[in-house]
Amino acid sequence: MDNIKIAIAGLGNCASSLIQGIEYYRNKDSSDAIGLMHWEIGGYTPGDIEIVAAFDIDKRKVGKDVADAIFELPNCTTVFCEDIQKTSTIVKMGKVLDGMANHMNDYDEKHSFVLANGNEPSKEDIVNELKRSETEVFLNYLPVGSEEATRFYAECALEAGVAFVNNMPVFIASDPAWANRFADRGIPIIGDDIKAQLGATITHRTLANLFSKRGVKLERTYQLNTGGNTDFLNMLNRTRLASKKVSKTEAVQSVTAQRLDDDNIHIGPSDYVPWQKDNKVCFLRMEGKLFGDVPMDIELRLSVEDSPNSAGVVVDAIRCCKLALERGIGGVLYSPSAYFMKHPAKQYTDDEAFNMTEEFIAGIRDK
Prior knowledge:
Blueprint: E1 4-9, H1 13-24, E2 49-56, H2 66-69, E3 92-93, H3 123-132, E4 137-140, H4 147-160, E5 163-166, H5 176-185, E6 188-191, H6 200-213, E7 217-227, H7 230-234, H8 242-253, E8 265-272, E9 279-289, E10 295-305, H9 308-327, E11 331-332, H10 334-340, H11 350-362
Parallel strand pairs: 1-2, 1-4, 2-3, 4-5, 5-6, 6-11, 7-8
Antiparallel strand pairs: 7-9, 9-10
Helix pairs in contact: 1-9, 3-4, 6-8, 10-11
């Protein structure tokens, strides 16, 4: 079988974990493949994914082989696979637009972006590169708040005729207008906003669903997160958080027995702590009423390495897009989106989404 050829916009921590993971699992088999939801999908294993194009705006990455660029600052995620084979794929200059928050210029270079010199590409340049490299699946890994830049790359995917996985909280797959455009072109899309393997949102959703199933009335809840990577630094600009807050909040609201008033639910990034690097710490509190209106509460602290926590989910999203391409299925892939993403076009419980995704992979369900 041929490899699945992918392109990536944004060679940050998440892309680094993904590329390390592809190499890490390349020489493993199903008996020792810890940390994956699926070892094989449609005959494809993680090692069958090939990076053929990449775009970034940081001068420390542009012009370098992807295998080297993923270890450049400001990336700070855990290195769990140092020996990455050269890809012969050179990182090209991407489109800046709103992909870099202005306040990032006020921070030390080891924590922030260093904008590359040189001409920014046009849409035609990106489209030509996607076609030249024979890209099949295009991943969006831009920073939170990159509304214009995400739409730019989504346009490029449409024009180039390649599948799109929108890992960020800019609403593309969940926007009917965009969804219709991908459907009209017969191009698969999975989105929006990647849901970690076992992170703050999936844990919060699971507990909210448990409250509902066990007859406990959820009255108030918050989810506070801290981290020290560029994502958290970027999100210090609260104006870039509108879509992110909607995405994370709706992911939890969608599985509660009764929607909470806005004053009784707070979900979102809290603060930037540089020494945490790519470690994300979540503080979760839920208050409710048991039998006889007797009050209860639960508090939880979750600590995870943020970027590897989503990489395995993206590996599955890539392979589901490949299945759709092989089967001639275009438009939003509703089942994988509901299972893999925080803000899909249609929300389902995680149990429902899991079963639907298994049916999609088996070919029982079209989307």
